[in-house]
Amino acid sequence: MPMRLLLLILFLLAAPVLSQEAPRAYESAFGENTLSKCELIVHAVASATRKSVGAAVAVDLTVQEVIYGTEKATELKLLLTDSTILKQGEAVEALFALKALAERGYSLIGKPVVTSGNDGEKSAKIAVCRAFIELESSEAGEARTTAFEDLLALHLDEGGYPAQNAAVELLLWVARKPALVSRARFDRFRTIAAAARARLDERSRQDVELALAGMVETRLKDKAFRDVRRGKTNAERVKGGSDLAEYFRDYPRAFVESDATLAEALAKVSVDGETARQALIDLGADIRRELRARKIEEEGKRESEAERVRHATGEK
């Protein structure tokens, strides 16, 4: 078979695959986990009455407003495979992300966001949902990434539900897209979290701290180590060392055994004077002390849990 004809056949066979659109990229965890899977988001009231439909439970939804998608009906049928996801015997007002079923009705994507609290909380939850839908409707790229960062910063500073959601999104952003971590973003969110501390609940403060620790663990400490080893000037290498000391001071659990080993190895080849060399030696020793303390803490927790089990079961 002539090569030209063979190539033509291969091209035609591959054409359907080549013509398929690439999967859409989402900026937020909300976009990736909810918008990508649902066809409709409604603010609705789920009836207190539940009916069994085979292995599922049918719930009537009275739509107050369509937030995303198109649906003209004001009464929808929701089929739940988990009957405990809505409070039993009570009507539930919430934001519902829905996917159409082959038969009449919808299935639920994720968990409903309950809006039956005070009016301020209700409007905040709806506004946050709208803001993320608008964000994800824009074209993917650097501008959208910056807009996402700005939205998280705005919501963290606002406090309340917007901050709770933003803290979770920030934590997941670091896990989903570590390549976007930078010192500038680290400094920005650390500054915002400190300024808005009184407006953040305890869980949100913890989530932001975990996100910042994740930034150190996934990207920032490695960059600092590279600066210590490969910085072109003495100032760059010393700055890398001071960054490492700062990261360890504030986020010691972001460091592991290999970091101690690396710090000690870099100390041996350091050309930046005794002070810089000693700082690396001290960092390695501090990391090892932290790891030993962490091991003792974890062993204590395991022994405490074992003691509780023995006490509960009557064992000696």
Provide an overview of this structure.
The protein has 316 residues and is of the alpha+beta class. The protein has 3 domains: 90 residues, Beta Barrel (OB fold (Dihydrolipoamide Acetyltransferase, E2P)), CATH 2.40.50.120; 89 residues, no CATH class; 62 residues. Strands 1, 2, 3, 4, 5 and 6 form a 6-stranded antiparallel beta sheet that branches. α4 runs antiparallel to α5 and α9 packs antiparallel against α10.
Can you give keywords for this protein?
316 residues; OB fold (Dihydrolipoamide Acetyltransferase, E2P); six-stranded antiparallel beta sheet
What's the β-strand tally? 6
Q: What percent of the residues sit in helical stretches (DSSP H or I)?
A: 55-70%
- Shape call: globular
Largest sheet: 6 strands, antiparallel
Distance between the termini: 82 Å
CATH C-level category of the largest domain: Mainly Beta
Unreliable segments (pLDDT under 50, ≥5 consecutive)?
Answer: 3-12, 15-19
Please state the CA-atom Rg, rounded to the nearest Å: 26 Å
- Domain count: the total is 3
